Amino acid sequence: MKPEHILVIRLSAMGDVAMTIPVLQQLLQQNPEVQLTVLTQGFLAPLFEPLERTTVYPVETKGRHKGVKGLWQLCRELKKQYRFDAIADLHNVLRSKIIRFFFKSSRLKTAVIDKGRRQKRKLTRKKNKELTPLKSSFQRYADVFAELGLAISLNKSQPVFARQPLPEAAMSFIIPGKKYICIAPFARHPEKMYPLEQMKLVIADLVKRENTGIVLIGGGARELALMQEFQNEFPQIINLGGKFSFKEELAIISHMDLVLSMDSANMHLASLYGVPVISVWGATHPFAGFYGWGQSPDHAVQIELYCRPCSVFGNKPCYRGDHACMRQLPPEMILQKVSGEINQTS
After folding, report:
1. Which residues pair with 110 in a beta bridge?
2. CB atoms within 10 A of CB 257
3. Which of 17, 163, 177, 271 has the highest CB neighbour number within 10 Å of its CB?
4. Interacting residues of 311 by C-beta distance below 8 A, sequence separation 6+
5. Structural domain boundaries, residue 340
6. Are residues 132 and 180 part of one domain?
7. pTM value?
């Protein structure tokens, strides 16, 4: 019998959580009897709000759910509130393994993501790389549900969500009829970031364009300080740093004509609304399976080097020591891609 109420586990990071959304949406569309309870970080709940029959249960890994004792408490809370038919572990890390163990006595049908670690090691090793496209994370998530008896036919031809209503405070700077490019220059790991001095050259060109607005997004104390530096140098920029909630930023992103990002969460957030994304790739590679939902392969900006990719997540220091994958990527390559897309949508 097919499960009807599924506990879905995907605790972090933001980009990976965002990549679950298209899969969950199509799971629900193709299986109207299914109900989901998603374990994830509470601040990510706005991502799941538009989904039908989906409840987010926030995990407080730094609070009451910290450590093994906290995870035991979490499982007690879940068992008290819900009756699950199955568990879909879309994360497969120590925390999710402990949660599955605590549910073992419930004899729930359980399926776990296969991350393809062996293939990814071949893709990123220094010698004899196997530079071939691997299965996408979207398909890996879908495979978990197929194992539970819920096969999903993934269709990437349409946006996941419609454009959201603009926050009132954004109506003063998002003007109908004007083109807007959102720039997300940051990433969790330095190896995934285009050098800021080179990014400034890109911005210097874009701010000169007529009828085009440049919106800058980012978060965290260090990023906010850098965003202010950008705005000081380019007063024309609309700096969203620290001014809107996560839910409001999502709504603003949904109104963009184009997003320029790194291999980061912002690529995936924009993809949920069908916004074209020009993404810049350095230490990582689209072949690892983390490309944006429905994005054109032509929108990836990257140069060929024998050392690329050197890691799956960009969390390893450049072993060459020169970050050539980004430093040798000329701003003109990015501008050419941006111009091509903006001209196409004009």
Report:
1. 87
2. 17
3. 271
4. 124, 191, 283, 284
5. 168-345
6. no
7. 0.95
